[in-house]
Amino acid sequence: MKPWHGVGIMVLSLVLVWGCGTPEVLQGREGQGRGQPSRAGTLQPERFSKAADGVITDRATGLDWYVSPQPHNSWHEAKAWTEHLTVAGGGWRLPTLAELKALYQKGASAIHTDPAFQAPGAWVWSGELKDPSFAWGFAFYSGLEGWHSLDYGCGRVAFAVRSRK
Prior knowledge:
Elements (H helix, E strand, L loop, with lengths): L4 H14 L29 E3 L5 E3 L4 E5 L7 H10 L12 H7 L19 E9 L2 E6 L4 E6 L6 E2 L1 E5 L2
Parallel strand pairs: 4-7
Antiparallel strand pairs: 1-2, 2-3, 3-8, 4-5, 5-6
Pfam families: Lcl_C
Protein name: DUF1566 domain-containing protein
Organism: Desulfobacca acetoxidans
C-alpha cells in the first residue's frame, strides 16, 4: 500500500461528511450540522416574491434578498460579493444570523424555506463574526447554526440582503 493511501481515504471521508466537492442543493436532511436549532414560525401565504432580476422580496420583513449562484464561498469572498453586488441598485450586505433563521420554515419545502431561496450549497454565511477567525452560518437543511473558519468555503453559500428600496 502506498504511504499516501491513508491520507487519501481520510480526505475523501472529510469531503463526504462536510459536503465539499459537490454543488449539492439544500435538501432538507435532518440531524446534520452543529449548534442550536432555530425557532421559526410558519410560512405566511405569498410572503416571498421573486422578480425577473432574481431579487426576492420578503413582504413580512421588508427585506430584499439575492442568492449567489456560486456554491463554494469563503466568508471573505461572500462579504466582497455582497458589497460589490449592483443588482437592482446595490446596497447589499451579508445577513445577520437572526435574518437567516427567520427564513427557516420547517417543512415548507425540501430546503425548509421558500423555493425562491434554492441555492447550490449546504450552509449560508452570516455577516456576524464569532471572533477574528470564525463567522456564523446557518444550515437550512437542518435548521442549525454554527461557526466556521473565515477561509473555509466548501459548500458555503452567500445570500445578500438589504432593506427594501
